[in-house]
UniProtKB/TrEMBL annotation:
Residues 1-29, 564-577 have a biased composition (Polar residues). It is found in: Cytoplasm. It comes from Salinomyces thailandicus. Its EC number is 2.1.1.211. Residues 523-546 have a biased composition (Pro residues). This is tRNA (uracil-O(2)-)-methyltransferase. Residues 493-522 have a biased composition (Low complexity). GO terms for biological process: tRNA methylation. Belongs to the TRM44 family. GO terms for molecular function: tRNA(Ser) (uridine(44)-2'-O-)-methyltransferase activity.
Length: 689
């Protein structure tokens, strides 16, 4: 909702004076702001605020749709009904429940409950919503249906806007833990209206007082006073409202956008099922020294995302057991025109939990890592058979004498006792990175393998999910990843040069045209000649540069770079402050590698307990549907059948050229460094991940 300019400017002026700080005042002993004959209302807290009603409405709309902001026990809110701000309120506010009501199509439990304030004391309902609060742990707390009303009233001097929460519950004993045990909760915002009579010429302009926000409770009949717990809850709610309002007033813009690939509801519902099935068991049998809470629930979150992603990309109706995979299909994914699930491989699988969760959920696949983990021995035998200790050495790094078929490890996990025995003998051998074409590649905090993930996917004509963590180049060495590949930087530079040349040519043509116009202009009469321009000769023929600019270093070219003033230590310029972090550039670099190899790179900020939570999804352009979420013309079965050895050799050549271009060295030199590092890595003890 747009903010009115006049009121916003007035509010900005007040941010440095009145109402800037959060200063709550206890009003439990004062008369309540809301009074009803048959209801016990208490105004708990109030605080000055600098933001206008438009910002209050924006903040409250965000809190209604995202209740997890004020309660960590909640996942989200599902909106079942919204009258809209322009709908006639009389039939939308729960005042009528007959056949003429606009909500007659809803089931009775989803129909709005009356505010009890419409038309009382000048209040008018302007909007009504019905939401369901979804808890994180449904085994502890049930969901809660709730009606949210927007009410408004005004007089000559002030405007009151109230957002009222009405739980669909009749007693405090039935109220879930995450909601205050009251019949209603009211958020009230007051704001001064502009003075109509203008001030006289000699009169001083009095500063308008700031607005205010307050929290009020309507208690259940069995309650007589507000408890200490309810006061603490009101303080948290009011503080959150004040903080978010000040942020919006200061121009806050959301930088991280979640749920761009998989809708929030689908992901969280899937995560809740996986958590109920695996969470407690995996946490109790944790044998690593690291925190089980982080690793277990992180892998559960990644598994939930993958299951929903695969439901969009593949036909998984024939997969799985215990109804788990079928449930993914039923969550909103159609199967027409999709190929069967091709299986997965988790490169750098670490503790193996992600592989175990996916296998137990009915998805075939396997994983390998340079080092065994103690966790592997605690997992079921079927999972242990799918976990292998391997050192990945891409085939382009291997000498020709090592590329014969006898020395290669199998592309798939062993299928019989003989293959299992051979696999055990090769347990600490290498893997070439060549899988069954089309196999979905997972790279979860795989460190040295992160940058190689798009390359391996291209070699195998496969989709992938990469979750970067630490930055390593294609030789396995630590480095600060650039935001783009060398080819992308070269193309960008060429484009900039062409743009500059085009602009320079336009300027020359414009100057030439102006000169021609001046030469063809009629002569001026003597009195029409303008006086010659006066020029001031500077006292110093070689002025020193401005203190805010510096000359380019000797031997370099380019525009002057602004430098911040020195105050004992150099302050960071605006340009320096906007520099992306090392993790942000690493994610951009992986996306650039993905795009250079012909993939449609998508990025999703995952809902996992980790600061390294960006997932880069790579799907070949032909495998994207109209919505960009998979399916469409890309047929995986066709890919697997038509992927000939000649095409794979051509892809190897492309990868070889890319490695040499990015590293600036021959592939033999890069491969030597890689093999040296992975051998050292294999000798280190395994960690918790």
């Amino acid at each position: 909702m747009a903010v009115e300019t006049s009121q916003t400017n007035d509010a900005v002026k007040q941010t440095d004076t009145a109402g800037t700080k959060f200063t709550p005042t206890n009003l439990t002993a004062s008369p309540p702001l809301i009074q009803r004959p048959n209801e016990t209302w208490t105004t708990v807290l109030s605080s000055p605020c600098p933001f206008p009603p438009e910002i209050f409405h924006t903040i409250m709309q965000n809190l209604i749709k995202n209740p997890n902001i004020t309660s960590s026990h909640l996942f989200r809110a599902d909106i079942y009904y919204d009258s809209g701000a322009t709908q006639p309120p009389s039939f939308d506010a729960g005042e009528q429940n007959d056949d003429k009501s606009f909500t007659r199509h809803l089931q009775p439990q989803y129909r709005p409950h009356s505010s009890g304030l419409n038309g009382v004391d000048g209040y008018e309902v302007t909007r009504t919503l019905v939401r369901e609060l979804i808890p994180r742990n449904p085994l502890l707390d049930p969901p809660l249906l709730q009606t949210c009303h927007y009410l408004q009233k005004s007089d000559k001097h002030r405007e009151w806007n109230t957002v009222l929460y009405v739980p669909h519950i009749d007693s405090g004993e039935s109220m879930p833990f995450y909601h205050p045990a009251v019949a209603k909760v009211a958020f009230t915002h007051t704001w001064p209206l502009p003075s109509t009579p203008p001030k006289g010429k000699g009169e001083e302009e009095d500063s308008e007082p700031a607005g205010s926000i307050s929290i009020s409770y309507s208690l259940f009949k069995e309650d007589t006073q507000v408890s200490t717990k309810l006061e603490r809850t009101a303080l948290r709610l009011l503080q959150t409202l004040h903080k978010h309002g000040k942020g919006q007033l200061a121009g806050y813009e959301k930088r991280v956008h979640l749920d761009q690939v998989i809708p929030q509801k689908r992901y969280q519902d899937r995560y809740t099922k996986l958590k109920a099935r695996f969470g407690r068991q995996l946490s109790e049998q944790w044998v690593e020294v690291t925190d089980p809470g982080k690793h277990v629930f992180e892998d559960l979150g990644i598994a939930a995302f993958l299951i929903e992603l695969w439901g969009d990309m593949f036909d998984i109706s024939e997969q799985g057991k215990d109804g788990e995979v079928g449930g993914a299909t039923a969550s909103g994914s159609k199967t027409e025109g999709k190929s069967p699930f091709p299986g997965f491989v988790d490169i750098g699988c670490g503790n193996g939990l992600l592989v175990h969760i996916l296998l137990a959920s009915g998805y075939k696949g396997w994983g390998f890592d340079a080092r065994r983990r103690k966790t592997w021995s605690t997992l079921p035998a079927t999972t242990q058979a799918a976990l292998h200790q391997r050192l990945l050495v891409p085939e382009i790094f291997l000498p020709e004498t090592s590329k014969d078929q006898e020395n290669k490890p199998p592309l798939e996990p062993p299928q019989n006792e003989k293959e299992e025995e051979e696999s055990q003998q090769q347990e600490k051998s290498w893997h070439t990175g060549l899988f069954t074409p089309g196999t979905f590649i997972i790279s979860n905090h795989a460190d040295e393998l992160t940058a190689w993930t798009p390359l391996l996917a291209y070699l195998n004509q496969a989709p992938f999910l990469a979750i970067p963590c630490c930055s390593h180049d294609l030789s396995g060495a630590r480095f600060r990843a650039p935001p783009t590949t060398k080819r992308a930087r070269t193309q960008q530079k060429q484009h900039q040069n062409q743009s500059q040349q085009h602009q320079h040519q336009q300027n020359q043509n414009q100057n030439h045209s102006q000169n021609q116009d001046q030469n063809q202009a009629p002569p001026h009469l003597p009195q029409q000649h303008p006086p010659p321009p006066t020029t001031k000769t500077p006292s110093n023929p070689s002025p020193s540069p401005s203190p805010t600019t510096t000359k380019a270093p000797h031997g370099t070219h380019g525009p002057h770079v602004p430098q911040s003033p020195e105050t004992g230590s150099l302050l960071r310029t605006t340009q320096q402050k906007s520099q992306p972090s090392a993790y942000a550039t690493l994610c951009s670099y992986i996306s650039s590698l993905t795009s250079e190899l012909g993939y449609e790179a998508q990025r999703e900020v995952l809902r996992i307990p980790s600061t390294r939570n960006v997932g880069v999804i790579g799907r070949e352009r032909g495998c994207l549907g109209a919505s960009g979420v998979g399916g469409g013309e890309g047929n995986r079965e066709g890919i697997r059948e038509g992927f000939r050895e000649e095409e794979r050799e051509e892809r190897k050549r492309v990868i070889l050229e890319l490695v040499e271009r990015e590293m600036g060295r021959s592939v033999e030199e890069v491969g030597g460094k890689w093999i040296e590092r992975v051998q050292m890595l294999g000798r280190k003890p395994g960690c918790g991940h």
